[in-house]
Amino acid sequence: MTNQHVLVIGGTSGMGLALAAQLLEAGHRVTIAGRSSTRLAAATAQLTARLAARAGLCAGSLRAVQVDIGVEDQVAALVHDAYDHVAVTAADAVGAYAPLPAFTLDAARSVLATKVLGPWLVAKHLGATLPPGGSLTFTSGIAAYRPGPGSSMIATANGALEALARTLALELAPVRVNVISPGWVDTPIWDTLAGAAKADRLGAMAARLPVGRVGTPDDIAQAFLTLFANGFITGTVLHVDGGHRLT
Ligand SMILES: NC(=O)c1ccc[n+]([C@@H]2O[C@H](COP(=O)([O-])OP(=O)(O)OC[C@H]3O[C@@H](n4cnc5c(N)ncnc54)[C@H](OP(=O)(O)O)[C@@H]3O)[C@@H](O)[C@H]2O)c1
């Protein structure tokens, strides 16, 4: 891949931020997108500082766009730019895990809006604008394969997203559509999910996994780059989970 323009929806944190950094360091143009202008500004400053510290690097260019992936007008407005690849890592963990009696319908709708309908809106408005060989890559997750109490809606969303991608791989062809399914990855989402118990929970999972550690955002970013670059992969779910499905 050379000089590609990649839109990363969710690019202000965790996996999306790591992906933006790796793309910029490889000389690509990157647009990061998310809801919070504060997070967009912070991510821009962080990425800019990281590139400035790498003297001699021929880095790509960066811009930031405010968008809520669940709002159709905002997603539709993204067509004003031309992209080669689009990655979606957006997810809002607030209220996304709860036992059934406490799970509100609004919270369930919010999970589906961000993780399923958002990617569907991206496909609807941007899919046909991508060049042949371009790609859409979504992010599902291990909860679809190793569900637990409280994860009903995340598991549902992850499974639905993978079914959506298989359909889109045919409907949007020759544009390629794939999904990355991460296992547990040390990102800021765990501050919301586990709070002070974050280190203990990630440590316990690390001990359980065949690879002996949880994932890093860079592990996932590398998988995105593989799916962007390999023109023979479409309709596929790439598991980047340290062997979690086997345990
Ligand atoms: N971390 C894990 O262990 C893990 C495991 C399995 C699957 N996953 C999946 O991997 C993906 C990335 O997770 P992460 O850990 O990198 O999350 P993260 O660090 O919390 O980052 C989430 C990003 O999504 C953005 N976002 C949230 N809601 C959005 C919306 N409605 N519209 C646009 N952007 C939105 C956030 O910015 P704003 O809040 O400013 O919008 C942020 O940039 C998610 O789909 C998650 O479900 C994560």
Radius of gyration: 17 Å
Low-confidence residue ranges: none
Portion in strands:
5-15%
Give the overall form: globular
Number of strands: 7
Number of contiguous helices: 8
Amino- and carboxy-terminal Cα gap: 35 Å
Strand order of the biggest β-sheet = 3-2-1-4-5-6-7
Coarse structural class: alpha/beta
Could you explain how this protein is built, in words?
The chain is of the alpha/beta class. It contains eight helices and seven strands; from the N terminus they run βαβαβαβαβαβαααβ. Strands 3-2-1-4-5-6-7 form a seven-stranded parallel beta sheet, sandwiched between helices. Helix 1 (14-25) packs parallel to helix 2, helix 1 packs across helix 8 and helix 4 (105-126) packs parallel to helix 5 (152-171). The protein starts with a strand and ends in a 7-residue tail after the last strand. The mean pLDDT is 96. Bound molecules: NADP nicotinamide-adenine-dinucleotide phosphate.
Layout of secondary structure:
Layout: E1 5-9, H1 14-25, E2 29-34, H2 37-52, E3 62-66, H3 72-76, E4 85-88, H4 105-126, E5 135-139, H5 152-171, E6 176-182, H6 189-194, H7 198-208, H8 217-229, E7 237-240
Parallel strand pairs: 1-2, 1-4, 2-3, 4-5, 5-6, 6-7
Helix pairs in contact: 1-2, 1-8, 4-5
Primary descriptors:
alpha/beta, seven-stranded parallel beta sheet, 8 helices, binds NADP nicotinamide-adenine-dinucleotide phosphate
In short:
The protein has helices at residues 14-25, 37-52, 72-76, 105-126, 152-171, 189-194, 198-208, 217-229; strands spanning 5-9, 29-34, 62-66, 85-88, 135-139, 176-182, 237-240. It has 247 residues and is of the alpha/beta class.
